[in-house]
Amino acid sequence: MNQKRPSIPLQVEAFRRPRRWKRWFWVLAAGVIAVFVIWLVSRSPSGVTPSTVEPVGAAQEAGPPWQLGNPEGRFTLTLYADLECPFCRSYFPQLKRWAGDNADVVLQWQHLPLAAHEPAASTEARLAECAGESGGHAAFWQTVEWVYTHTRSDGQGLPDGLRYPDLTPAIEQCLASERASAVIHAQAAEAMNSGVTATPSVRLHDRQTGKAVLLQGPIEGDSLLSAMDMLAADEPDTIPVTEMPADVVGDMPR
Fold first, then answer.
1. Reduced to 3 states, what is the DSSP secondary structure of residue 130?
2. Cis (ω within 30 of 0) for the bond into 200?
3. pTM here?
4. Measuring CA to CA, how many Å separate 47 from each of 30, 36, 44, 100?
5. Peptide bond preceding 119: is omega within 30 degrees of 0, i.e. cis?
6. What per-residue confidence (pLDDT) applies to 29?
7. Is the pLDDT of residue 131 over 80?
8. Residue 172, Cβ density class (10 Å: 0-12 exposed, 13-18 middle, ≥19 buried)
9. What is the pLDDT of residue 204?
10. How far apart are CA 253 and CA 204, in angstroms?
């Protein structure tokens, strides 16, 4: 015997239909959000957000002095260098790598363009200063690396016709001013007054004890570690402060 199928009350049917629409609405909304997120990620280089590619020290206040590494590190390692110095060019990558491997050290640059390398040395120093003024610490160090990679050294400067690839109107405006030159001259004068007459030279300063040591030439990492230990020691007489000979003015050979 066939039984008549009971009909669904109208109010129940009316209730079920909106629920299906609500489900499809949230599916559609999730899809739109996913597409938007993918679009945002695709706008960052290599799919990485800018904050993940900033070097250590990128959040520091723009210099000078230009620093690389841990700005809160106990030791400040100041490199006195000339961008036309061939020994500085070979030493710089080693020192930068060593500083990056030591969390207690911040590397700091100090200009010391030598008279024998002018005018190329100061011209390149102004470029680095203006790049730093425009782009901060990272831009300064990147420019130093670019100069050392391309310069012919010994005062010969960059190859004729070679143009800095990241030159911007802001950098050009800085180069046309005297701001960078003033910084370079002040740093060079300070270096000479403190007894630094040759490049490369380094000064290691213990910010906790206030003691410092000036070291001549391209100092190896093990020697720098020993100097750090001596500066941190309680006995002040254990620090062998090295003096520059009065007649040494120029590049320090390896």
1. helix
2. yes
3. 0.72
4. 21, 14, 5, 26
5. yes
6. 57
7. yes
8. exposed
9. 97
10. 20
CA of 181: how far to CAs of 111, 165, 199, in Å?
Answer: 11, 22, 19
Residue 217 DSSP class: S
40-54, 117-131, 152-166, 175-189: the lowest-pLDDT one: 40-54
Cα separations in angstroms, 70 against 58, 74, 103, 174, 208: 10, 9, 6, 28, 15
Residues making up the chain, counted from first to last: 254
HSE of 105, CA atoms in CB hemisphere, 13 A: 22
Q: What is the CA radius of gyration of the chain?
A: 30
Give me the amino acid identity at 173.
Q
Query: Residue 191 above 60 pLDDT?
Result: yes
- String of DSSP letters for 55-119: PTTTTSPP-SSPEEE-TT-SEEEEEEE-TT-HHHHHHHHHHHHHHHH-TTEEEEEEE---GGGTT
DSSP-derived 3-state class of residue 244: coil
Instruction: Provide the CB-side half-sphere exposure for 33 (13 A, CA).
Output: 6
Give the span between the Cα atoms of 194 and 201, in whole angstroms: 12
- Partnered with residue 213 across adjacent β-strands are 204
